[in-house]
C-alpha cells in the first residue's frame, strides 16, 4: 500500500503527523496555528490518518522577493559573495524555465535566506575538488532553502565551484531539452530526493510502516520503499546518518561529472571558501 508524501491537491503540503486515531491527528493540526493543514485517511493494514501541513507559498518563484545584494547585505564576507551567487543561480533557473518552456516555475515555499547561509557554514572547505564540491552541493540540497529547483540550483553552484578550480570547466548537460533529468543524472537525483525525504521523516515513516504502508510516493513519481530504509525513531540520529549518506552520494555524482568532462583531476586539492569567493567576485 502506498501513501503520498505531498498532498494530492496541494503540493506545498507534506506529511507532518501519522496516527491510527483521527482525533489525535486533529489535535495535532490544532497546534499548527500558522500552517495550512488537511487530514487524509488511508486503508493500510489498519486505518491510518495522515496530517498534511505546509505554509502558504507564492504561486510562482517569480513572485518571491529576490534582490541578492540587499538580501545578503548583513552577511559577512566571504560567505556574502557565495550567498549572492547562490541566489543569482536560483534566479537563472527560474528564468531558464520561463525561456525554455514558456512556463513559470512553481514555488512551494518562501525563500529561506538563513538556510543558504547555514548550508554554506556547514561545508568542510578542506579536501579535494570532488569532496568539497560534493559537500557544497549536498548541504545546499539538504537545507533546501529555495522555493523550488533546489537540485538544479545546487548543481549550478557545484559547476561554479569546479570552474573556480579549472577556469575552462563546463558542466555536462544534466537535463534534456524538455527540462527532464538525463538518465545518467536521474539515478543520482532520485536517490538524493529519497535520502532527503527519509532523513526528514524517519520517525513518521516508522509509524507508517507499522500501520502497513509499503511505499511513500513523492511528487514526480519518486517512490520510497520503506522496507529498504533504516527508519529510526530518533530524528537527530536520522539527520546525522542520512546527511552522511547524502554527502557521499553527492561526492559520487561530482566524481561522475568530472570523469565525464575529463578536465579536472577529481583528486586534486580544492579551493577553500575565501578562494572560491574570490573567484566568484571576478565573474560578470
Describe the structure.
- A hairpin with a 3-residue loop joins strand 3 and strand 4 (47-54).
- The protein has 9 helices and 6 strands.
- Helix 3 packs across helix 9.
- Helices cover 50% and strands 11% of the residues.
- It has 284 residues and is mainly alpha-helical.
- The protein has a 3-stranded mixed sheet, with helices on one face.
- The radius of gyration is 20 Å and the shape is globular.
- The termini are far apart.
Quick description:
With 284 residues, this protein is mostly helical. Helices cover 50% and strands 11% of the residues. The protein has helices at residues 22-31, 68-71, 79-101, 113-122, 129-143, 150-165, 183-210, 235-261, 273-282, and strands spanning 2-4, 14-19, 36-43, 47-54, 215-217, 223-225.
Topology:
Elements: E1 2-4, E2 14-19, H1 22-31, E3 36-43, E4 47-54, H2 68-71, H3 79-101, H4 113-122, H5 129-143, H6 150-165, H7 183-210, E5 215-217, E6 223-225, H8 235-261, H9 273-282
Parallel strand pairs: 1-5
Antiparallel strand pairs: 2-4, 3-4, 5-6
Helix pairs in contact: 3-4, 3-6, 3-9, 4-5, 5-6, 5-8, 6-9, 7-8
Main traits of this protein?
single chain, mainly alpha, 3-stranded mixed sheet, 3-stranded antiparallel sheet, 6 strands, 50% helix
Amino acid at each position: 500500500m502506498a501513501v503520498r508524501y505531498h498532498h494530492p491537491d496541494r503540493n506545498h503540503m507534506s506529511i507532518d503527523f501519522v496516527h491510527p486515531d483521527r482525533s489525535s491527528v486533529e489535535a495535532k493540526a490544532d497546534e499548527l496555528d500558522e500552517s495550512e493543514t488537511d487530514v487524509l485517511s488511508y486503508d493500510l493494514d489498519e486505518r491510518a490518518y495522515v496530517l498534511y501541513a505546509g505554509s502558504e507559498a507564492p504561486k510562482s518563484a517569480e513572485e518571491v522577493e529576490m534582490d541578492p545584494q540587499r538580501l545578503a547585505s548583513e552577511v559577512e564576507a566571504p560567505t556574502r559573495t557565495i550567498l549572492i551567487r547562490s541566489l543569482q543561480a536560483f534566479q537563472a533557473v527560474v528564468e531558464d524555465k520561463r525561456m525554455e518552456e514558456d512556463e513559470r516555475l512553481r514555488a512551494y515555499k518562501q525563500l529561506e535566506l538563513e538556510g543558504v547561509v547555514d548550508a554554506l557554514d556547514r561545508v568542510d572547505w578542506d579536501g579535494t575538488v570532488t569532496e568539497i564540491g560534493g559537500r557544497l552541493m549536498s548541504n545546499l540540497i539538504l537545507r533546501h532553502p529555495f522555493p523550488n529547483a533546489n537540485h538544479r540550483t545546487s548543481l549550478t553552484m557545484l559547476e561554479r565551484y569546479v570552474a573556480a578550480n579549472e577556469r575552462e570547466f563546463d558542466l555536462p548537460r544534466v537535463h534534456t531539452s524538455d527540462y527532464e533529468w538525463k538518465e545518467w543524472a536521474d539515478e543520482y537525483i532520485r536517490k538524493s530526493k529519497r535520502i532527503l525525504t527519509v532523513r526528514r521523516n524517519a520517525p513518521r515513516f516508522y509509524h507508517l510502516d507499522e500501520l502497513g504502508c509499503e511505499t511513500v510516493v513523492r511528487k514526480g513519481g519518486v517512490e520510497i520503499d520503506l522496507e529498504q530504509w533504516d527508519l529510526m525513531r530518533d530524528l537527530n540520529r536520522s539527520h546525522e546518518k542520512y546527511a552522511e549518506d547524502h554527502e557521499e552520494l553527492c561526492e559520487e555524482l561530482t566524481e561522475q561529472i568530472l570523469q565525464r568532462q575529463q578536465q579536472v583531476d577529481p583528486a586534486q586539492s580544492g579551493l577553500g571558501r575565501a578562494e572560491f569567493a574570490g573567484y566568484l567576485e571576478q565573474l560578470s
